[in-house]
Structures are given as C-alpha cells and as structure tokens.
Amino acid sequence: MEVLVADKKGFCFGVKHAISLAEKLLAEGKKVYCLGDLIHNKQVVNRLSQAGLEVVENLDQIPSGAAPNQISGPIPTVLIRSHGCRPELAEEVKKRGFHLVDATCILVKHAQKIVSELDQQGYQVIIVGDPNHPEVQGVIGYAPDVLVVENENDLVKIPRSSKLAVISQTTHSAEDFGRIVGLIAMGSYEEMKVVNTICRETARRQDSAINLCQQVEVMFVLGSRHSANTRELANLCQRNGVETHHLQNWEEFSPDFVKDKHRAGVTAGASTPDWIIEEFVENLKAL
C-alpha cells in the first residue's frame, strides 16, 4: 500500500502549549485540576491523568472548593483548557483562592478580545460555529447577547440590527464560514463587519488535506470524534469526493477500508499526537 501523508497535520502550537504547561506544573509537584479535558484527545488526557492531572467539570469538585478561601493544605492549581472559558469562571477560580494557570490558545484569546471590542462598538455579534463546543461557550461570555449560528437554519435568530459583526469559531471550516457569511449578507443590514478568526494552522491543514484528496483513492483522518477541527477535516475530504474514514487510532482500522485500493492518504487533527499518526502510517504501509 502506497501511503501519502499530509504536510500539515497533528499538534498545533496551541495544543503543544497547553500540554507543555500541564507537564511543567505536574513536574513541579503541584496538584493540578483541569476544567474539562485539556485537549480533545483521550490518549493524551489519560497520560496526563496518570501523571497526576485531575479533570473536573466544575469548581465544586475540587477539594475545599465549595466555599471561597476555605482551603486547607497545598493550594490547588486550576488549569484553564486550551479552548478557554467564560471570564466569570476565571474570576471565580481566583475568588476561591486557587492558583489560576491559563492554557487558552492565543488565537482563542484573540477571538475573545474581538468579541468584547465589537460589543463595545455597538455591534450585534454573531459567531459561526458549534454552540456546544467549549471554545464557543467560552467566547460568548465576553459580550451579552452574542448569537451562535451553526447552519442556515439558525439565520432566523439574527435580529434586524443596523450594525452586525460576524466572527468564526477558530477551528471552523473556512469554506462553511464563507458560505454562512454570504447568506447573512443577503439580509438588510446598514453595516456588516466580518472578522476572520479562523486559525491559520486550521486553514493550512484543510488546504493540505484538499490537495491530498486529489492524489489518493481513500483518506484517513486521525483524531478524536469530539475534536471539531478533526471532524471538519473528515467532512472536507468527503466533500472533495474521496472515500474518507475518521478514525481515532489504528485499532479502529479495518482491511475492508483499503480493499482494491493502492494509494491512501493520511492527515490528522490538531489534537492528534505524532505517535498515533506514525503508528497508523507504518501499519498501513505494511499491508
């Protein structure tokens, strides 16, 4: 089996930064709690958990965290995941007397800042993305009345504001963002401002995958099914007319995927570690 690998794949700098911060804190012997999975990859999260990282869903799950400043023993460190969080949650961490370490991706921070500024300038802010994604849930906390548009069915929610501003979830498909923006622009707005907040690495990864689709008979997209950017990659490959399989690792592979095929392509989402990619590629080449 001939295997072609995308030149843009795997860990982005935001994920690398978050993992590096977690590893540093754990190496220093700190008791570290993360609000939700640090990144969308269970193998990486499990490895960090084995090293001492505890994943919690809310602050009340942290010992002595039920009441402000009621801490006995070492002060817990709360790590904000790479997707960020609402500003009031970060403030609550501080009020409770915990150490706060922010692993939010710098591009997500940029989107948070943009939303706040646009709101202060009087714009009705629209975010194109998944309303259930932790990044989006965090970003909407930076201004009141932010609307999330996932698809064309959500367009009816947009009020007839005279000033409209549209941004994107950083891991969203550039193609879909452009399509939704075009549909919104058909509305009667005196002013419509569009800010492209899509991560450049996400865009480059998508372009690399599209290029690879033209050269292979089947595509394998590696990464968590909870990862928005990985799902977008898989959808993008399918839309480009090539048989596509979104797998988390080699264990999910079936020989039927490559039956009567001679050339396969491999790419991976931003939360997929190199060792998963390398193991998959080597096993595929051996067929």
What does this structure look like?
The protein has 287 residues and is of the alpha/beta class. The chain has 3 domains: 2-10 and 201-285, 3-Layer(aba) Sandwich (Cobalt-precorrin-4 Transmethylase, domain 1); 13-104, Rossmann fold (3-Layer(aba) Sandwich), CATH 3.40.50.11270; 107-198, Cobalt-precorrin-4 Transmethylase, domain 1 (3-Layer(aba) Sandwich), CATH 3.40.1010.20. Helix content is 36%, strand content 18%. It is built from 9 helices and 12 strands. The strands form 3 sheets. A 4-stranded parallel sheet has the order 1-12-10-11, sandwiched between helices. Helix 7 packs parallel to helix 8. The termini are close together. The mean pLDDT is 93.
Helix content: 25-40%
| Principal-axes shape call | flat
Q: Identify the strand order in the major beta sheet.
A: 1-12-10-11
CATH architecture of the largest domain: 3-Layer(aba) Sandwich
